[in-house]
Amino acid sequence: MSFILGLTGGIGSGKSAASQWFETQGITVVDADIVAREVVAKGQPALEQIQQQFGDWVLLDNGELNRTALREYIFKEASARQQLEAITHPAIRQSIIQQLTAASSAYVILVSPLLFETNQHQLTDRSLLIDAPIEHQIARASQRDGQSIQQIEKIIQVQMSREKKLTLAHDVVLNDGDLNHLYAQLEILHQNYLKLSHKNKPS
Ligand code: ADP
User: Does pTM top 0.85 for this prediction?
Assistant: First the structure.
């Protein structure tokens, strides 16, 4: 298996901007958020398990997951989140492993906002934190999503703190300037990851 880099950061920190740059360098990026949606797509075993666990009301008429209804239910029923995660987390993990294994680029990136929180960093060889001052996170995320400052502050509050992530990550990029400032820092790291992935290769 290739050398695997875990890439994380809080909302609006610049994870997607960084991932896109790595992709332009030919590096395959597996996005945990996308995988999380894929495993509960219509016809997937995890969606059937969710239906069996909670009832037919979790499905829309077209057979897709009724995300809004499930989100509201989980909000009311404390034990439901754990039941749901007991179904989705193993499915997400399995699919991430499959996609990481299938990749053929010099090294592979797993991008996940919850890399440390969900222990997905255990699947990786090294981790990179995209860090940004909270004012930048709020400004960027509210501009991107049209969410209110209060909503974004709430999300930041429930995410693992910057300080804690800084102690866990091997590498850190401070995304507090323009995009070229971000890319210049990524370029240096990329060269190092190419070296590390080379060393990692079985001879
Ligand atoms: P995340 O994926 O961590 O939530 P994004 O990469 O989507 O964050 O960044 C949030 C928004 O801010 C996006 O619209 C992105 O293009 C923009 N952005 C990220 N970094 C910078 C930067 N250094 N300069 C200007 N805009 C940026």
Answer: yes
